[in-house]
Amino acid sequence: MIVAEGLHFSYGSSPVLQGVSLVARPGRVLGLLGPNGSGKTTALRMLHGSLAPSSGRVSLAGRPLAALGPREVSRQLAVVVQESDSDSLLTVREMVMLGRIPRLRSFQRTGAADHHAVDASLARVGARHLAGRRYVELSGGERQRVLVARALAQEADYLLLDEPTNHLDIRYQHEVLQLVRDVSDSAVVVLHDLNLAARYCDDLVLLSEGRVVASGSPEEVLAPELIESVYGIGATRTFVDDGVQLLFHPLHQESTA
Amino acid sequence: MATTTAEAPVHDDHLAAARRARCWTAGLVAALGLSLVAGIALGAVHVPFAAVLEVLGHHLFLVPDERTWSRPRESIVWDVRLPRVLLASLVGAGLAVCGMALQAMVRNLLADPYLLGVNSGASTGAAAAILFGVTLGLGEHALSASAFVGALAASVLVYAVARSGGRVTSTRLLLAGVAVGYALQAVTSFLIFASDSAEGARSVMFWLLGSLALAGWGQPLALAAVVVLLTVAVLTIFGRQLDALGVGDETALALGVSPERLRTLLLVLVSLCIAVVVSAAGSIGFVGLVVPHLARRAVGAAHARAVPVAALIGAVLLVWADVIARVLLAPQEIPIGIITAVVGAPFLLILVRRLQATAA
User: Fold this and answer.
1) Which one, out of A78, A142, A218, B257, has a CA that is 20 to 30 A from the CA of B227?
2) Nearest by CB: A106 against B238, B251, B300
3) Which residues in chain A are closer than 8 Å to B360, comparing Cβ atoms?
4) How many CB pairs under 8 A join A and B?
């Protein structure tokens, strides 16, 4: 379980987080939502210690994150960071092999077990045929798959993803999130798209101006009046395949919700 | 088309890459051995290959145990050219691996070892020694020693400027290196201008363009050997961490590698290595920029493989560049930096064209 309590943070004098608390439970996919600048990416970075809160604390399986080194954290949390635009010259296999760093000592050479882990991870994201290709030559969707495979190769308990659907067309957005559901039972994912969140997350946390304004199931969080007050756009809620979906109203129309 | 690749055996790409790396390494080790012997044989005075091997065999293994050659020939082989080719290979290896490490650290394929301003510091130190006889009481190694002091001072300065709040980011590192480099170049130019010695200015110019003429058995060679080999070893061992840093700071951190600590460690090591290399042989351009690209083309970008291969390619290239520098206008020597620039600049142009091609 990842528990964040009362996280505060500011860049200079402008506050980004003003007391954010949330819980990521094992076996569930938690979605972090909110408008631009609401602090969702900042909150995610604090969950894995890439950024330290000015006050508040994060604990991982009952132990404070601040007391664990980056190496120990990387054995428990696998992060898919937004660096998919990197023009790294590594091959896909070498890129996924980086996920083994937390499992290897500095002087230890990669062995058969590591190559098996890499092959298995690539197979799970359906990218084993890409192993010999260079990362720079891949499309955006293929890159995201490879980065998810790298996170899987870490064999960590939790998967953390920061806007994994960025720059992807609609089919790949669904593919990547379906992939997250398929490969990992415990995940925290920052998302922009509310309907994607409704479809693929078990729990949602909605942030606005550095505060949690709602948390709970998609039905609870994606209430039209809440969405309108946070995003400033009217919405109608419908149910598709037993799941919540929102229809948004262009700004010049009156809200009919 | 896609279906055939999807069913390719799982381990093939990996094993093929490993085999390729082994072949390159073995081939380059052999090439370096041959280059060292050739580098001793060729020069203003030609020494037959067999004679080179006899002298080396006698000194190293006492085979043959009787001297059948003249004193001067022995002196050319053992006292003059052997330390020179050894220094050339160490300098080439050092520049190549430092260039490769810096390209990963600042994530720029056009980064080179002189980016950190270390060579400008060495030049300032050397200019002070040549023009004003600042010898620091170090006798025959005064030039190397004062260049080394200048190089270390410059790297400490760059590090102090680049560091803020305990962090060294790649952008700050680049800016600090460029700023310190330009400032020290100005100091060197001023020293040359102020000294009013045409002879001294000529020596400084010669040194600035790089030369292995100072090579000999002694502390600079021993120091270069220790530091360059240590640098190659550390960069190879930390290859995976360097790979992660090359992808991005967030990636490195997510994999449990602290980017700040790694960058600081590398910065200290690389600065020291460049300081040693530049103080022994002056600023030799293009090796640290071009060789990493050759190594990556040969065995791929993963540092655990590419670093040793870059070291070997750099060593071989610099031995031959030095041979050309010695024989082209013999008995006069050309500064080796001119040779590496003539060969390296076209490589760079090809590289730029390739980069554009992949971007398009």
Assistant:
1) B257
2) B238
3) none
4) 103
| A91 to B300: CB separation less than 8 angstroms, yes or no | yes
Report how far residue A61's alpha carbon sits from residue A50's, in angstroms, rounded to the nearest whole number: 18
Q: Omega into B292 within 30° of 0, i.e. cis?
A: no
* Cβ atoms of B211 and B333 closer than 8 Å: yes
Per-residue burial over B296-320, b = 16 or more CB atoms within 10 Å of its CB, e = otherwise: bebbbbbbbbbbbbbbbbbbbbbbb
Structural tokens at position A194 = 């509310």
Show residues of chain B in contact with A90, CB under 8 Å.
243, 246-247, 300-302
Q: Hey, are the CB atoms on B240 and A97 less than 8 Å from each other?
A: yes
Q: Check whether residue A71 and residue A40 sit in a common domain.
A: yes
A5 has a chain B CB within 8 A of its CB? no
| Same domain as A209, residue A168 | yes
B138 pLDDT above the threshold of 70: no
Same domain, A20 and A120: yes
**Residue A149 and residue A253 in one domain:** no
pLDDT over 50 at B1, yes or no: no
pTM of the model: 0.88
CB contact (8 A) between residue B301 and residue A50: no
Q: Are residues A15 and A137 in the same domain?
A: yes
Q: What pLDDT was estimated at residue B162?
A: 84
Q: Which residues of B touch A44 (CB under 8 A)?
A: none
Tell me, what amino acid is at A43? A
Dist. CA B249–CA B266, nearest whole Å: 14
Q: Which residue blocks in A98-166 are alpha helix, DSSP H?
A: 112-124, 140-153
**Are B240 and A101 within 8 A, CB to CB?**
yes
Range of the domain at A131: 2-222
The DSSP result for A166-223, as a single string, is TT--HHHHHHHHHHHHHH-SSEEEE-S-HHHHHHH-SEEEEEETTEEEEEESHHHH--
In single-letter form, the type of residue at position A132 comes to G
> Which tens digit of pLDDT belongs to each residue from A167-189?
778 888 898 899 888 887 799 99
